[in-house]
Design goal:
The structure is a single chain. Helix content is about 45%, strand content about 0%. It is built from four helices and no strands.
């Protein structure tokens, strides 16, 4: 099942799904569910896990332009 179909079936919004997956933003979830970006391998595995395998690892488009990780730590200025 595709991510968008899973989220509709479970009535999940982008924020809730991003929190479940962890480490990515709601913006990234939106890009993933509409196929505008593909997930990193780590993100695809995590989505597979939090959906109990319903969103399969082969459900993603071949193009892989991963979303940036959700980094909450302040960046040092060098």
């Amino acid at each position: 099942m595709k991510l968008i179909d899973y989220m509709r079936a479970e009535k999940l919004d982008d924020v809730t799904m991003a929190r479940r997956v962890g480490g990515i933003t709601q913006h990234c979830i939106r890009k993933l569910k509409y196929g505008e970006r593909g997930p990193s391998l780590q993100t695809a595995i995590r989505i597979h896990e939090v959906t109990s395998g319903i969103v399969g690892l082969t459900e993603w488009p071949r193009k892989r332009v991963g979303c940036a990780p959700n980094i909450t730590e302040p960046r040092s200025v060098a």
